[in-house]
Amino acid sequence: MSNPEELHDDLEEEGVHDSNHYGISTGIAGLLFGLAVIAFMFALADGFA
Length: 49
Known about the structure:
Elements: H1 4-14, H2 25-46
């Protein structure tokens, strides 16, 4: 039977994700979408006045 510490290390190595896989454009698009949703919610609460 394998050592639990070794098993944990194997899981950590396989679980590493590349943060630059999608590039920066999707992050910028997400921020813009979030700001647009916030602005829409403020406008909705204000009655689009």
